[in-house]
Amino acid sequence: MATVSPQNPAPEPFDFDQEVRSLVLDTAPRLFAVVQEFALDDGWRDAEVAAWGMAYQDGHADVTSVDGRRRFSLPSPDRVMRHFALLEGVTARLVWLTPPRAATFEPTEAA
Fold first, then answer.
1. Are the beta carbons of 2 and 12 closer than 8 angstroms?
2. Cβ–Cβ < 8 Å for 72, 94
């Protein structure tokens, strides 16, 4: 199949691989970390990554603690924070990772 651009009268072949990459990038879940913050005895604050999660296009999120012992499937990413802020003096927040806008295409197909 070929398409013709108004600026370029020469036909250009349809780039199926590029369409697949675009599909993957457009539908990829967003990755986030759940960070726990807590006060230290000397008045300073510290933080640690407590879990990693993926938010999907329909709004739900899957989250796994870094030790692998807790897993959640929740209607929204914001709901996970209450599970990681149960101890006194501990707060939790989400830190979103910006996905790279490139995808590698490996043309190997499963048999």
1. yes
2. no
Whether the per-residue pLDDT at 94 is higher than 50: the answer is yes
Q: Which amino acid is at 89?
A: G
Q: Return the half-sphere exposure (C-beta side, CA atoms, 13 A cut-off) of residue 17.
A: 9
Residues ≥6 apart with Cβ < 8 Å to 50: 34, 35, 36, 65, 66, 84, 92
* Paired strand residues for 64: 52, 71
Spatial separation of the C-alpha atoms in residues 51 and 70, rounded to whole Å: 9
Residues ≥6 apart with Cβ < 8 Å to 49 = 33, 34, 35, 66
Give the gyration radius of the chain's Cα atoms.
21
CB atoms within 10 A of CB 106: 5
Q: Distance (Å, rounded) from C-alpha 75 to C-alpha 60?
A: 4
> What is the mean pLDDT of the segment spanning 83-107?
80
